[in-house]
Amino acid sequence: MTLRDQIAVGMSLPHRSPDPLALTTVGAVARRADELGFRDLWVTENIVDDNTCFDPPVVLTYAASITKRIGVGASVSVLPIHHPLTVANQWATLDFISGGRAILAVGLGSARHYRDFQIPVEKRVRRFREQVELIKALWTEERVTYRGQIYQVENVKLATRPVCKPRPPLWMGVGHPDALRRTASLADGWMGSGGSSIAEFKGAVPIIKQALEAAGRDPVTFPISKRVFMAVDERPAVARRELERWFTEVYHNPPGTDASGIHGTPEEVRERLEALVAAGANHLLLNPISRHAEQLEAVAELVQIGGRFRVISAAHRRSAWITHQSQPGENQRRHNKNCPKSAR
Questions:
Q1: Which among 194, 202, 179, 205 has a CA at the least distance from the CA of 253?
Q2: Cα 141 from chain centre
Q3: How far apart are CA 222 and CA 233, in angstroms?
Q4: What is the Cα–Cα distance from 35 to 317, expressed in whole angstroms?
Q5: Cα-based torsion angle of the residue sequence 247, 251, 252, 254 in order, rounded to the nearest 10 degrees
Q6: C-alpha 218: how far from its chain's center?
């Protein structure tokens, strides 16, 4: 059984690099990933960064405008540095433009985010929870009145309505055990970060599954994912050298090359990806870090994704990416099949 028959497979849109990125490269990867049948395209948010990095809603809007069915998501958007009204409107707009294909994954961020954006560290979990609650309300209710400790709004209406009903899916990209448990009650999916180790991912999965069961939710249909920074080459030393440069220059963490990333020949990479599936992943975000167009083809071959294959396999249907019943509207009729059931 191939990887594409076992899980949903996403692809990273070229968006963060120690080298300059051309818009033509971004467009080529977006179109080709859509043609090949990858489930979704993803970016990260790094507003203050030593590397090239594009803004998520902007670059995803571009990708959505030149593709037809592939999902468009960010993991993660650092929620505390934004106002929830802005986030809700940006992602509702992306969902409208894409015809119901947007996926927002959010996280708490690190100490540098609170420092750089002058956000109080105190009550950061309370702030985060209120933001999530308010965004969901703005996506689903005609008018919203919300009175929290941090945020208060009175009878507000979102300027743009999302296409996905009842709302776009909201995932979380968190790592602390308490945050993982919160994911089970607040989120529609979870993605382990690319910088976290594979060992950490394997340790997180049982925590999430236990919390899901305690909350009365089915762990089988809840998306559990891992971003995988990777390099594939028939010459293993070349693949490792490329990935080591990434972890050294972008993450300033050379040991992450082996602890968090996956590199080697197609056979070696496939074996390590299958180990992640065995550990509990039902979705993987594959993130080549260089030679983007070439690596996209190599990755598609090793997971056996191709344009003539089914876009959604039986395993995908079991994993909560199932068609919604839509409301009338041309955008929604065209792309409603990509509106995840997990958003219900």
A1: 194
A2: 25
A3: 33
A4: 20
A5: -30
A6: 20
How many Å apart are CA 89 and CA 185, to the nearest integer? 23
Cβ atoms of 93 and 49 within 8 Å: the answer is no
Say how many domains are in the chain: 1
Query: DSSP character for 340?
Result: -
CA-angle at 186, arms to 170 and 276, nearest 5°: 70
Show contacts of 183-187: CB within 8 Å, 24+ apart.
Answer: 183/208, 183/211, 184/208, 184/211, 184/212, 184/214, 184/215, 184/217, 184/222, 185/211, 185/215, 186/129, 186/132
DSSP codes of every residue in 93-130: HHHHHHTS-EEEEEE---HHHHHHTT--STTHHHHHHH
Three-state DSSP class for residue 278: helix
Q: What CATH number did the domain enclosing 328 receive?
A: 3.20.20.30
Q: Which domain holds residue 14?
A: 3-343
- Residue 180 region by backbone torsions, left for phi larger than 0, else alpha for psi between -120 and 50, else beta: alpha
- Beta-strand runs (E) in 108-188: 144-147, 152-156, 170-172
CA distance linking residue 144 with residue 164, whole number of Å: 19
Would you give per-residue pLDDT tens digits along the chain (344 residues)?
Answer: 788 889 999 999 999 999 999 999 999 999 999 999 999 999 999 999 999 999 999 999 999 999 999 999 999 999 999 999 999 999 999 999 999 999 999 999 999 999 999 999 999 999 999 999 999 999 999 999 999 999 999 999 999 999 999 999 999 999 999 999 999 999 999 999 999 999 999 999 999 999 999 999 999 999 999 999 999 999 999 999 999 999 999 999 999 999 999 999 999 999 999 999 999 999 999 999 999 999 999 999 999 876 433 333 323 322 333 222 233 333 333 344 547 544 33
Q: What is the largest CA-CA distance in the chain?
A: 60
- How would you classify the pairing of strands 170-172 and 152-156? unpaired
How many C-beta atoms surround the C-beta of residue 322 within 10 A? 16
The CA distance from 15 to 25, in Å, is: 10
Query: What CA dihedral angle connects 95, 194, 22 and 87, to 10 degrees?
Result: 30
